[in-house]
């Protein structure tokens, strides 16, 4: 056959073209299989990262001021395994990942995306970054045996409520006598048909008001209308997780500066300026008219088993009119078994006396200002007004006692958890919910977590 004839012969060309076309089809099909597989792995990994971030965010309060604490790492790692993966290698704080297998990086504060992330540097959000390597099927022919796949998520703690009435069945678990405004939810856990009552209260507002039972009132304007017959929250008591401080031996101080006392400590104007330090104060602390008292940071344990005039309970913590009291980073634990906490608007129109007490931001009891032991049922009365020179910032916790309450909200946040609550008609009560001073946010464990990125 001549060369010219050979070149003109088209026999078999169609077969060659078909083979090339088929190879291209197979190649595109293989690429589609690999890409589809990678996207499937990516979706599954994103679900695991979301779960890890949410689980880690739930531990922010537990960690307190310790970033990336072990509880946070364990919770996030467990979330990964619960999504069907093996136990990951855990890294923290944007550490360079060296693992060639499944890895989990927990970042608290958030750091992976740098300053472009609106949550960058925040300790109130947690970032979870999950990476793994997945094999390819067809791309390996071209030398791509494994691809690195990653997913990232951020979550933050949320806390719905800041007012809780724990009474499971009593009437008037929450009673409102005058204006009440809250930047957080109010939860009334009583199943009574008269669980929430109000009289001539024209201004009652909150994002949500939940009542396990019913409500009753005369000329009571509540916005929005309470959600009635609601289920009790879980846990019922959002501060039940707290571990009480040890009730140590009574202090023996007899003059300022005090480090505890062996009997009731009554402070008056005659004492001059007085300094108290953390310790055990047996018999209670009574700050009388015109007294001037400074509490240094720490936890004050108050033990009282005596009775006063006419057999009435004595002890506890009492702060009277016209006194000047200050303390930053303080927690008052009223063990009892008798004696309550009485706070009687110490300043009169801001002319005489002032009180400024704020809860710790870190340590064992961040956000906890007043705490009465569950075995102590003595009622409490807390009256304070910012314009009148009083500031109380923190949580008020009385799990087995009723509280008469009127605080007008000059503080960044207030939390009230008690068996029964009466909002008095002296001044309106305002609950703010700005927890920026607390690294872990609200101390309440009624929290949940939400994805923020």
Automatic annotation (TrEMBL):
InterPro entries linked to this entry: Tad_N
Top-level taxon of the source organism: Bacteria
- Which residue ranges does the record assign to the Putative Flp pilus-assembly TadG-like N-terminal domain? 12-58
Pfam families per the UniProt record, alphabetical: Tad (PF13400)
Q: Protein name, please? A: Putative Flp pilus-assembly TadE/G-like
Which keywords does UniProt give here?
A: Membrane, Transmembrane, Transmembrane helix
Instruction: Give the stretches traversing the membrane.
Output: 12-33
